[in-house]
Amino acid sequence: MSEPVMYSGEGIKTFIPQREPFLMVDKLYSATDNSVETGLTVKEDNILVSEDGRFSESGVIEHIAQSAACFAGYNDWINKRPIVLGYIAEIKKFNLESPVCKGDELKSSLKVVSSAMNVTLMDAEVLCNGKKAASCKIKIFMDKKK
Amino acid sequence: MLIKDFYTVVSKEKNEAGEYLYGVKLNPEHEIYKGHFPEKPITPGVCNILMIKELAESAMSRRFTLKTIDRCRLTAMVTPDGSPDLTVKIKISEDYSLNAEIFYDATTFMTLSGKLVTGF
């Protein structure tokens, strides 16, 4: 589990515009021009953790969306372009295979399926403590007009 | 409601087609907007998904997990200042298949089809 992390904590804020209390990625393991690997430690005080300790399915989806934002932000950063706001345009075939709870360690890998203009479609898979927990296809719109 | 004070339900009705229609009002003062985004408050799409699930729970008086989403399209941006009033239309079939739409007047903000499960 001691895989090298490229960026964590505050360092993530270089790549994504989301901030507390709605920051759902805390590690960037790797990024290329068509993939990204990210992580999140689900803390008890996360705004999307319920009183009984469950991380909402919406939290898992937001973690995926912010992972996609990390992918775009990292590639903007490395190419010296400004970081722009990205929005979810569409989610397809989301499946939550097992519950995610406080204290769990999420690790996600996303790969680009297609990209055109400001819209990128990615395949996402989320591992929870090393076991597959969720997957989906996510379409992100990057707001490049400033 | 998982995110305290994020929205208020102002009306509820069930139409002849068996669909539930909830009127909701977003709270523009919520702390989420400090982080999404610091200079531009935009209601996170996943919070609207969460709202749909919670209203489905309210309609059926039971707890659900939204285990699968076949398709969720975000067709217009929701901002707490520009579009605080929303209508959430929910249809739940006997096997807990869910179809939902968030709209106001002629603007559709989100459509979602998926499957709710209990005891997950």
Q: What strand order characterises the main sheet of chain B?
A: 1-2-4-5-6-3
Shape of chain B: globular
Coarse structural class of chain B: alpha+beta
Order of helices and strands of chain A: EEEHEEEE
What CATH first level of chain B would be assigned? Answer: Alpha Beta
Q: What topology, given as strand order, has the largest sheet of chain A?
A: 1-2-3-5-6-7-4
Q: What is the helix/strand order of chain B? A: EEHHEEEE
The name CATH uses for the topology of chain A is Thiol Ester Dehydrase, Chain A
* CATH architecture heading of chain A: Roll
CATH architecture of chain B: Roll
- Give the count of structural domains of chain A: 1
Helix content of chain A: 10-25%
Quaternary structure of the protein: heterodimer
> Helical region count of chain A?
1
Helix content of chain B: 10-25%
Rg value of chain A: 14 Å
Extract low-pLDDT stretches of chain B: none
Estimated structural class of chain A: alpha+beta
Summed up, the helix count of chain B is 2
**N-end to C-end Cα span of chain A:** 40 Å
Average predicted confidence as pLDDT of chain A = 94
Question: Could you describe the 3D structure shown?
Answer:
The complex is a heterodimer of chains A (146) and B (120). Chain A is built from one helix and seven strands; from the N terminus they run βββαββββ. Chain A is α+β, with helices and mostly antiparallel strands and 146 residues long. Chain A has one domain (7-142): Roll (Thiol Ester Dehydrase, Chain A), CATH 3.10.129. Chain A has a seven-stranded antiparallel β-sheet, with helices on one face. In chain A, strand 2 and strand 3 (35-41) form a beta hairpin. The longest helix of chain A has 22 residues, at 57-78. Chain B is α+β, with helices and mostly antiparallel strands and 120 residues long. Chain B has a single domain (7-115), classed as Thiol Ester Dehydrase, Chain A, CATH 3.10.129. Chain B is 17% helix and 43% strand. Chain B is built from two helices and six strands; from the N terminus they run ββααββββ. Chain B has helices at residues 32-35, 45-60; strands spanning 7-14, 20-26, 65-74, 85-92, 97-104, 107-117. In chain B, strands 1-2-4-5-6-3 form a six-stranded antiparallel β-sheet, with helices on one face. Chain B is globular, with a radius of gyration of 14 Å. The interface between A and B is medium-sized, with 30 and 31 residues.
